[in-house]
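In response to a reviewer's request, we include the raw inputs and outputs for one of the modeled complexes. The two entities were modeled together in a single run.
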Amino acid sequence: MRRRLRIGLAFFVLLVLAIGAYVLWAQEPVIAGIRPPPRSAFDPALIETGARLAAIGNCAFCHTAPGGAAFAGGRPFPTPFGTIYSPNISPAPGNGIGRWSEAAFRRAMRQGVSRRGKHLYPAFPYDHYAKVDDGDVHALYAFIMTRAPVETFTPPLQFPLNQRWALTLWNLFFLDRRPFHPDPGRSAEWNRGAYLVTGLGHCGSCHTPRNVFAAEKSSRPLAGGEVEGWRAPALDAASPAPVPWDAAQLSAYLRHGWDAEHGAAAGPMRPVVDSMAPADDADLHAIATYLAATPESISPARKQRASAAASRAATTELPASSEAAAAALFAGACAGCHMGRTAMLPPNGVNLALSTAIGEADPRNAIRILLDGIRPGESGAGPVMPGFDGVFTDAQLVALLSYIRAHYGGGPPWADLAAQVHDIRADRKR
Amino acid sequence: MTITISVNGAAHRLDDIDPATPLLYVLRGELGLNGAKFGCGLGQCGACTVIVDGEAVFACLLPIAALEQRAVITLEGLGSAEKPGRLQQAFIDEQAAQCGYCTAGMIMRAEALLDRNPTPTDAQIRDAMAPNLCRCGSHMRILRAIRRAADAASATPIAKPEAGR
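The model returned the following structure tokens for the whole complex.
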């Protein structure tokens, strides 16, 4: 007994020493600061390329506080261990990255390490940016270093988040440092899309499920995740969209935030679409080509589901007498836009039999859209839907959503809808 | 179907009515309360805004089936031509209307805001009023009128005269 205890203790001490040695070994050096380069140091064409790439990376959204100066950081990201604030990445020499050389910028992008050698949190998706090639990092550097420098100070992280050494261990297990490898069996456009989706576009940050260490499950890329209380739908074969996306629809959706056979970009996807406005059409089409289904990739079961959705969309099933109350709410509040019963204004709302939010097995997005509505983003253009918070009581929302799911969802009833409605309402009041 | 709704403190029994009928049609067609206006019928302009249980909502998308046991307040519930409510008076003082079609909805949404938050910042006023549209260009006057009503309520008449305006 004593002997086993001693062996166990020795093993534990060795383990701690090994981890300590690894953490020390994995520390990164400071990269010397430079004098902030003038705009003339960068080729205007390169800056322009960087701008189009930054649109796909959506750098501006996270690195701009609500109402704050562009790229000056300070947007809060609540985590279970405290709040992380996005850093200032404007080229300000003091609080921004004005003194970062391109080598320092590249190391941050690929390895998540600041110029001073501090480990950055993977809320900054360097696990994706590790795939961005040298040429694109070069262009992004030119773009970022020619933004307006703003000396906004970002609050430092509090304990335990300031114990950044722990990230060396996270990186050991979850950071794939290998560069992107094209698939020679696929088209150039498909490969461009794969490169953008897995790299700069970091789609998986929201659309891939995460493990207990908040790392993406590499075995289930794009299988659907969670973000800010919303469901980020699966983009793989498990997509909840009643009708599979084709590349033309998906690239138009990424451009305009709307597709008649799927619905509108809502919740955290709305700013993503806004951010991509300056991106190249060709790049959005490449992303769509990589993500969208092809006729050969659609299984017979999936085709069946799509044709069932199409027939639900074409025919209106009359409500049963037991549903009269919910049917009245639907007729008064929803049917005008979603059933094409209004002659006032095009375009009408998505046919709910085709809506991804209604087809999704998880009701959260449907609840949030019904409560919040859909507002156009900062650009001021995009689909609109009024919010119904204040219009309906919890019980009415549950009845209405159950009715919509039963008539248009094509799947089993949403489980614990009442609890979800209650929780989401409470969460929105916070 | 018979439904009873409460508007401005009075109960109204509606016989033989489709429960999907929007509240707006009932207010204007059945009850003769013409403050709330029909603008778009799609919940996008706010001309029909009324208050239900303290929240500003679009009456054009509110089926009366949802209203039993709930209190509706319309523009007529805030005051009259002889005795205007605080926001109605402020809108008069600031001449915050051109064609006037949006005014009732604007006042109702502002009323819900001031009931919830009697001392809003200018940014909070703008944010709260975002769902309501004015097509004439009276926006700055509307914002001033709401500011005036909020300031009048939060200050004694002596401590805060008209200075600064």
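As requested, we also summarize the result in words. The longest strand of chain A covers residues 76-79. Strands of chain A lie at 76-79, 82-85, 225-227, 230-232, 258-259, 263-264.
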